[in-house]
Amino acid sequence: MEDTVLVQDRGGAVATVVLNRPEKLNALSRPMWRRLADVFLELSADEGLRCIVIRGAGTKAFAPGNDISEFATERSNVEQAKAYGADMRRTIEAIGGCRHPVVAQIHGVCVGGGLEIAGLADIRICGESSRFGVPINRLGLTMAYAEIGSLIALAGEAAALEILLEGRVFDAREALAKGLVTRVVPDDQVEDEARAAAQRIAEGAPLVARWHKKFARRLRDPAPLTQAEYDEGFACFGTEDFQAGYKAFLAKAKPLFKGK
Fold this sequence. Notes:
- This protein has helices at 30-44, 71-74, 78-96, 113-119, 145-155, 157-166, 172-178, 190-203, 206-218, 227-232, 240-250, and strands at 5-8, 14-19, 51-56, 61-63, 102-106, 109-111, 123-127, 131-133, 169-171, 183-185.
- It is α/β, with parallel strands linked by helices.
- A hairpin with a 5-residue loop joins strand 1 (5-8) and strand 2.
């Protein structure tokens, strides 16, 4: 199933992950969930990478959710659903725990599992005609703990419950108001805007980007910060990139960050 989750531009500062099932609007199959976890775990360990763009193939959809045609064979009872859910959880944790910044390039439909995946990105850019929602109440399905947790972290409990209880599919303007996306642009500018965002990230200090992601996620945990964690907030001052950055600023030059 490697051809249904592609990795493009590997070896550069920005890699692109493509949900590649355009004949099904990139509907997610169980092998795709498994492959997506493997891909993000591998990319997260890549020291040369600075940003990841994730998108669906084509411009009709990011992803409409899970492929319902699989339900009869893969999710027809509780035990099957638990096994399928374990694969989804692994992927959610792999994307959510990725060290590198992730930009979601959202064209068209982004609902259900597609919204879960896009919502794990750090920056989410969509087109004006994009549509969002989680209409699983019509299927008699719940969103499991691993899935609902990321939705609440993104939009808050009130908005998450509104989305789940009503099961509406809504437009990009409402998605922006709910915090599901960070930027809405004309449909024909989505790719350019996502690429530009990724490039700006890639030009920054990569260690700083990783630290910022780590700090933001740690602050979701109500446990008090340790002294070691407070101290880590100043570790950047001991890096070569800090020396290069502030000296380049004073010299009015462009810094060259090496991730050291």
